[in-house]
Amino acid sequence: MKITLRLLSAFIAAVIIASVIPFTASAKDGIIMDGIVAYYDGANNSNGKQDLNASIWRDLSGNGYHFSVETDENTKWTENAFHVDKKRTYFNENVRSVANAKQYTIEMAFGELEYYGTDWLTLVASDNDEFSMFIRVQDGLDDLEYKYNDNNRDRPIAKNGRDLVSNSTLTVTFDIDEPICKIYIDGELVSSGVPVEINIADTLFFGHENPKRSWSGDVYSFRFYDRVLSDAEIKHNCLVDDDKYRSGKPYTPEVVDTGAAEVTEREHIDYNIGDVITVVDFSDPEMFSKMIKAEPQRCTLEMDDSGAVKVTVTGPQPYFYVPIDETNSFDGDKFTTLIFNYKTGGGFEDNVAEIYFSTKYSEVYFTDNHITFYIDAADDFTDLEVNMRDDDNDTWHHEIRMIRVDFASYDAEPGQELYIRSLKARYDDPNSTTDAVTDPKPETTEATVTDKENNDSTAEVTSPATDTDKARTTGADNTGNSSKTGIIIGVIAAVAVIAAVCVVLFLKKKNKKADPQ
Q1: Which residues, other chains included, contact 153 with Cβ-Cβ below 8 Å and sequence gap of 6+?
Q2: What are phi and psi of 389, to 5 degrees?
Q3: pTM of the model
Q4: Cβ contacts of residue 311 below 8 Å, gap of 6+?
Q5: Cα distances (angstroms) measured from residue 90 to each of 111, 326, 407
Q6: Is 193:156 a contact under the CB 8 Å cutoff?
Q7: For a pLDDT cut of 70, what percent of the chain falls above it?
Q8: Model confidence over 4-20: pLDDT tens digits?
């Protein structure tokens, strides 16, 4: 009997060893490397050493998806982690493709965390909020949630979120073909959901500066896979995390073969006031595919022979996203005027429109960042300028990360068409208090308006359309001229009344002199 038990024990041990050996053989530190797209080790930020002054967190996957980190006295490197303190940090743009794929695994290894947010604790998210791993703490809740595009549908949710995440390895797996999405904590399944759509994240970052969403603590590792890891593989990675980061054992960073890829920084250009850059060329098929992937609402998109994207209204309040990523993002502190090249069709009528946007360091959700402007019907392509500092609540700052155009805020009839050919941005003087003018003959227009106020004959010559355009450009309504006319009439009436009173007093005084009694 004892021999049988020993044989059974030996067999079980052999099975366990056999199941573990293939996982550890693919990487020096034991992490599963099969299918890994990006790997960030908090104790080995520079591939072979832990540089406490590093401004780049190097990718150890071999793909070269390194990204920049900004440190200060609170957000900084430690001996085995990147310590986050109420601050947002963006991953390499290429990592986003993992989160938007049909199958993936994302692992996040954390140390002890302190939570400050009052509504949500944003762990990893996108600017457009189409990818969000967070803890909901509003209204006394404590729910760990993973939002993947389909918003309030069947997402995985786990109770006691703060305790689950702190000093743990959090893993999320996603498979749209099953369909199934799972959340694991330290290798144990805590929740699952049934996704109906893949993600459409526009960026990917961790941490948050907003007091309603912030937290502080050590980040040990991030790992992104282009496949779904098995339960055994997930548990294995968690054991490696425990041994490396949480055991107290000394760890010596080792060099991992990352190939020839290096950090690629965007070209630095010294722009001058008046410079205009092309943000998006909508004739680019790649840009068009991104617009489709971002799911336009209550409108359809199609490429047009005119080299523009044709937007057709299908319902009220239609909108679409303008593709913005690391390749075409720009500095909102410099480029404050957007220029849309567009025309309309399908009986499109003048309309109130809005632009929603997010920025790299925005402290509010993008739906709170918006500005209202006007779109006039135009038979031919024309430039529409929008001053993004005009009544924007001082939020158009830093790197612009996302733009959404709500091009018909009201009275959007199905069939109306908008053709948009390009989006440009102009570097305007931040100290200028006057609107930038592109009309080569502005003085004539201004003189006409001035004469209109003082000369009745000139007023008859002035086109009413000019007054309407001017009112829309300045954000005013069309009551300005009528108000001025009312004031003039009022002044004339007041003068007449005063004159009449004076005449009465004069006559009365004269009568008294003629009849002294």
Answers
A1: 193, 195, 196
A2: -95, 0
A3: 0.58
A4: 296, 299, 300, 301, 318, 320, 407, 417, 418, 419, 420
A5: 20, 10, 29
A6: yes
A7: 72
A8: 444 444 444 444 444 44
